[in-house]
Amino acid sequence: MKKLKERIANLGLSIKKELTTALAFSIVLLALGIVAFYLLNSYIYLGVGLVFVVLFNLLYFSRYSKLEKEQNDLAKQDFVSLFTFFKIYLHNGYSVYTALKEIQAFADKQLALYLSDLIRDIDQDKTINPFIRFGRKFNDLIIEEMMILIYQMIDDGSNPSHLSQFDLIFGKISDIAYEKEINKKRNSLASMSTFPLVGSSILIVMVTFGIITVMEEMVNVL
C-alpha cells in the first residue's frame, strides 16, 4: 500500500481521491452482483459481479504504468527543449553552472524542481553524484551519459572537443525524442481503429449474458 501511495503521489494525483474512487466503484459493482443474485436467484450474477470488481481494479490501477511512461516521455521532451537553451549558452561562452542557472527561467514546473535540486546539490557536493542523480530521473542512459559529460566540462572547461561531443550526444537525444513523438501520434491514430472492435466485444458479452438468462428461465420452467 505504501508503494502504491508513492506512485500516486509521484504522478501528481490525489491519493484520497484515487483510493476512494476505486473503493466506491468496487462496492457498486459488487452490490449490483448481489442484487442480481437475489432477484434472479442465480449465483452466476454474483460471480460476474466479483469478476467485474477484479477487472475494474486491475484496469484502474494498471493505468499508472501508462501514466508514468507518459510523464517520463513528457519530461524527456521538456529536457530536450530546455537543454537546447543550455547548448546555446555553452556556445556563447557561459560556464556550465551559469548556464544551468540561466535555463531555470525556461523550465516548466517539474523540470524546474529537478534543476533546482541539481544546482543545490552542486553547491553542496562538487563530485559527479549530483549530475548522475539528475540524469537518472529520466530513466535514460544516454541522458546520464550527457550529464556525465557536462560534469567533465566543469573541470576541463567548455573546449571545442567537449562542445562537439556534447552536440553529438544531445543530437542523439533530440532524435530519439522526435521519433518517440512521431510513433506516439501513429499509435494514437491506430488505436482509434480498435474502438469498433471494443464495441463489438461488449455487444457479444451482453448477448451472451442474455442467452444464458433465457436458458436458465427455460430450465426453471421445465
Tell me briefly what this model is.
The chain is mainly alpha-helical. 86% of the residues lie in helices and 0% in strands.
Descriptive tags:
222 residues, mainly alpha
Q: How does the major sheet shape up?
A: none
Q: Which regions have little confidence, pLDDT < 50, spanning 5+ residues?
A: none
What value does the Rg take, in angstroms? 27 Å
Structural class: mainly alpha
Description:
The protein has 222 residues and is mainly α. It has helices at residues 2-10, 15-40, 43-91, 96-102, 109-124, 129-136, 141-156, 160-192, 195-221. The protein contains nine helices and no strands. Helix 2 (15-40) packs antiparallel against helix 3 (43-91) and helix 3 runs antiparallel to helix 8. The two termini are 51 Å apart.
